[in-house]
Design brief:
- The complex is a heterodimer of chains A (about 525) and B (about 350).
- In chain A, the strands form 5 sheets. A 6-stranded mixed β-sheet of chain A has the order 6-7-8-3-9-10, with helices on both faces. Chain A has a 6-stranded mixed β-sheet with strand order 16-19-20-13-21-22, with helices on both faces. Chain A has a 4-stranded antiparallel β-sheet with strand order 2-1-4-5, with helices on one face.
- Helices cover about 35% and strands about 25% of the residues of chain A.
- In chain A, helix 15 runs parallel beside helix 16.
- Chain A folds into 3 domains: about 5-240, Rossmann fold (3-Layer(aba) Sandwich), CATH 3.40.50.300; about 250-335 and about 425-514, Rossmann fold (3-Layer(aba) Sandwich), CATH 3.40.50; about 345-420, no CATH class.
- With about 525 residues, chain A is an alpha/beta fold.
- Chain B is mainly α and about 350 residues long.
- Chain B folds into 2 domains: about 1-30 and about 305-345, no CATH class; about 55-275, no CATH class.
- In chain B, strands 1-2 form a two-stranded antiparallel ribbon.
- In chain B, strand 1 (about 175-180) and strand 2 form a beta hairpin.
- The longest helix of chain B is centred in the C-terminal third of the chain and has 36 residues, at about 310-345.
- Chains A and B meet through strand 1, strand 2, helix 10, helix 11 and helix 13 of A and helix 8, helix 9 and helix 13 of B.
């Protein structure tokens, strides 16, 4: 096959000194699906962004169709037939599908007005050509995430792009939607398009791609043929050591009920019922997982447990204490909380590590202050920070450095350390491994399981079904603000939960038999 | 820390350079002008003492703005709070008859009370009606301006005077002067030490700082951010009020029309230049005071008008604020480029 893109000794340093791409030399061939895999921060997105013109590389050379290129901005890349679909979907929800697709490149009639008919025809012909199964007159607001992603891809195809770069396209999809996307991508390949596919899900990479480039810490480790490798081999190249894919989860032995929610309902300011009659409880030494497509009430559930919103009806209690309307500080005596967004809820990133570690402890633990809580006890806080550094194996440097100087994994370790050392009976973990690399995820999971052994009651909200199946004892499915199912992990499977997440009810087997 | 110092000093030097170019363009002699400017503000006991005395209201209103900005509230009410503080101290000084060791502290406390009361109004408007302090403090400035003007024109008017002003306050309320040095500087230093300690060592100060950086994180951590908001408004109002009290007690010893001058807006400007840092506020306050103090002498010796100092101040603000961000990017980019070259095989 013809080599389409050649990259030679590419270096990208993010100021001041983060080497994101380190002397990468690789090539991409015409008409292949080429996956780029690596942990978070391995440099796979950055490599694609410097090619696409979103970032500028410092050293090296890129050749495209035999010519040396250096795109200053994505527009230049699109003009040369290269397009990128980002993780976040950037469409106008009020516009229809075809309007979104032609936006910025509308066909114009002789009056200088958008030629709607021709625009719709052009869009429809693209949809037919690649069998995308999409209603062009639907409003983007009303269509599913998977359909929106198709619109993003069509936007590029409409602009006659022949090289498609997809940045973790499956991250927003449910397990059921992924095969369809893959079929569409294969069809595109068979039409002669080249697809560069960024991912860290090894299984999907193996099913979809022709060749795979593995990156680790900015360096290219290898480029291999998909049929000649295995998941284990890829994982080892990605992480640099062998990874265990099965967790050694022991059967839990839950004790007394610690946390409970009764008849919880939350109606928001716009009269939408976001949570409806939620009932569940978590026992000591039990790890309950909450699965669900994002936006089905997880956010409201976390906020009502933490006291950021006032629930409309119902009761939340920990250890028998009613905390439904308690002050946040009062709740924090019973609840440790790890949020999904470290920069927004979990830390003040510009403040020092020390200042971030002290939070909440400074009010609940009298050792952190002297003079009846008036003056900070700097010495004790420093000693406590060192304790977290050692106990949670944080690579910290100076405690007075800003929190954001830590890597993502280390930031999460510091937050975990701070929250777990609050010594509360109940832990609320909202996607605690989001955005972390494989090594850090493993560490977080081990820590969570250790807490379960210590008889803590744990509620884990996760968008990652594999994570839930690896460590949760019980899985609740949240669908449109209601609990659609409550199943012990060993009596269900990913497919069943995936279906419940989408439909909110069990698959109708009789219908299937038809 | 070092980087801050470099960017601050280089910013001031560049601003002076730009000032020099402007002067050359207008046919003035820059070296002679700057010589006169700093001769009359720094060199010699009297110039130095005057610079220090004049720096007090700038630094105190600057600290008020810095503490507010760094803790979250956009308190822009220093002009009004300063005037209310000055009025409270004046009225106290007119009617109270106490020995100096008692009257001086009482008047200082009264001025702080006046300032805090005024910022407290903004805090309550936020609490009850969810009105943004950014707007209310600005509006309250106007009200304070006209209210104090009314107060010195009618109820507390000095009948022997030809323009709106109060009589002089009780002699026991005058701040002592030692040689050239006015003791208002001591009060300012004391206030600086106290606010520095509160902000950096007290549990409350820690909560303010964290809330200023990420209020949602602070709230989830159990900090009562609404309560702290009110406290910060009161404390920063008190600081601005204290500035007003000191202006009265160190200077004319009465409230006369135009007393607030431009002190408080200069203070806000200093807080912006200082990036809400307390030490930086102190140092920039001294620098701005030196420029303002020296401008009189400059006008005396050279043909450059005093107003030129306002240009110089504005240029300093622009250069330092713009330079702060730019220098960081420049530093980072240079390091990145060097690192990339090292990596090339």
């Amino acid at each position: 096959m013809q080599v389409l893109i050649e990259m030679k000794d590419i270096i990208k340093v993010f100021p001041p000194n983060v080497v994101a791409v380190d002397n990468v030399t690789t090539d991409f061939r015409k008409g292949e699906i080429h996956a780029i895999v690596g942990e978070n921060g391995a440099g796979k997105s950055t490599l694609m962004k410097v090619f696409y013109g979103l970032e500028q590389f410092n050293q090296g050379e890129i050749r495209y169709l035999g010519q040396t290129v250096r795109f200053q901005e994505p527009g230049e890349a699109i003009a040369r037939g290269i397009g990128m679909v980002h993780q976040e979907i950037l469409l106008i929800p009020q516009y229809t599908v075809w309007e979104n697709i032609v936006l910025g490149a509308e066909p114009i009639n002789f009056l200088g007005v958008i030629d709607r008919q021709r625009a719709r025809q052009m869009v429809q012909s693209k949809i037919d050509e690649f069998q995308f199964n999409l209603d062009i007159d639907a409003k983007v607001d009303d269509i599913s995430v998977a359909a929106r992603q198709k619109v993003e891809i069509l936007k590029l195809l409409y602009r006659n792009v022949s090289v498609l770069i997809l940045d973790e396209p499956t991250a927003v999809l449910t397990p059921q939607e992924i095969p369809q996307l893959f079929n569409e991508l294969r069809r595109l390949r068979d039409h002669g398009h080249t697809i560069l596919f960024i991912s860290h899900h090894l299984e999907e990479v193996l099913t979809l791609s022709d060749r795979i480039t593995v990156m680790r810490k900015g360096k290219k480790i290898a480029t291999v043929q998909a049929e000649e490798t295995t998941k284990e081999e890829l994982a080892e190249m990605m992480v640099g050591r062998a990874v265990l894919f099965t967790s050694h989860r022991e059967k839990s032995n839950p004790g007394m009920e610690v946390f409970s929610i009764e008849n919880l309902t939350y109606v928001d300011g716009t009269h939408h019922t976001r949570l409806e009659n939620i009932n569940f409880h978590v026992r000591e030494g039990e790890l309950v997982g909450i699965a669900g497509v994002e936006g089905n009430g997880q956010f409201e559930l976390v906020n009502s447990i933490m006291g950021l919103i006032r629930v409309t009806q119902g009761k939340i209690s920990v250890n028998g204490f009613d905390i439904t309307n308690a002050e946040i500080l009062e709740r924090r005596r019973y609840i440790s909380f790890v949020s999904q967004d470290r920069g927004k809820m979990g830390a003040a990133v510009k403040a020092s590590i020390l200042e971030n570690v002290m939070m909440t402890h400074h009010r609940l633990n009298p050792d952190f202050t002297t003079w009846k809580g008036l003056i900070l006890n700097d010495q004790f806080a420093r000693q406590f920070t060192r304790q977290i550094e050692q106990q949670f194996a944080v690579v910290m440097g100076n405690q007075d450095n800003p929190f954001r100087s830590l890597s993502g994994g280390n930031q999460q370790k510091v937050i975990l350390g701070r929250e777990l050392l609050l010594d509360t009976p109940f832990l609320l973990l909202d996607q605690p491994t989001r955005g972390l690399d494989v090594g850090s995820i493993e560490y977080v999971h081990e820590t969570i399981l250790k807490m379960r052994e210590l008889k803590r009651a744990i509620l884990l909200i996760s968008a990652d079904l594999e994570e839930l199946f690896r460590i949760a004892d019980r899985i609740l499915v949240l669908h449109r603000g209601k609990i659609a199912a409550d199943l012990p992990t060993d009596q269900t499977n990913i497919e069943q939960i995936g279906y419940l997440m989408l439909e909110g009810k069990e698959k109708n087997l009789a219908k299937e038999a038809n | 820390m070092q980087r801050k110092l470099i960017s601050g000093i280089s910013g001031i030097l560049i601003a002076l350079l730009i000032g020099a170019v402007i002067m050359l363009f207008q046919g003035y002699e820059p070296l002679q002008t700057y010589g006169a400017l700093f001769n009359f503000s720094l060199f010699g006991l009297f110039p130095l003492a005057t610079t220090l005395r004049n720096s007090v209201p700038l630094i105190l209103t600057g600290l008020s703005a810095s503490v507010a900005f760094a803790s979250g509230p956009i308190n822009l009410g220093q002009p009004g709070q300063l005037l209310m503080g000055a009025l409270f101290a004046t009225v106290g000084g007119l009617y109270l008859d106490l020995p100096p060791w008692l009257l001086i502290p009482v008047l200082l406390l009264l001025s702080m009370l006046g300032g805090a009361l005024w910022s407290g109004v903004a805090a309550m408007l936020r609490k009850w009606f969810n009105m943004d302090e950014f707007i209310t403090t600005l509006m309250l400035n106007m009200i304070a301006d006209f209210f104090t003007y009314w107060a010195i024109s009618y109820p507390f008017f000095d009948r022997s005077a030809y323009s709106p002003m109060t009589p002089q306050i009780n002699l026991n309320g005058w701040l002592p002067i030692w040689g050239e040095f006015n003791s208002n500087v001591l009060v300012m230093i004391l206030a600086f030490v106290v606010i520095y300690f509160v902000f950096n060592r007290l549990t409350a100060g820690y909560e303010w700082r964290i809330t200023g950086q990420n209020s949602l994180f602070a709230r989830l951590g159990g900090i009562k951010i609404d309560k702290n908001y009110v406290t910060v408004m009161l404390v920063t109002g008190a600081l601005a009020g204290l500035a007003g009290g000191l202006v009265v007690m160190a200077g004319p010893h009465r409230f006369l029309k135009g007393l607030g001058a431009n002190y408080a807006w200069d203070g806000v400007m200093i807080a912006v230049v200082a990036n809400s840092g307390l030490w930086a506020t102190l140092l920039y306050g001294l620098f701005f005071s030196a420029m303002q103090t020296g401008s009189l002498g400059m006008e005396l010796i050279t043909a450059v008008p005093r107003e030129f100092i306002q240009v110089l101040q504005a240029v300093t603000v622009l250069v330092v604020v713009a330079g702060r961000g730019y220098l960081d990017i420049l530093f980072d980019k240079t390091i990145a480029r060097r690192k990339a070259r090292e990596r090339t095989v």
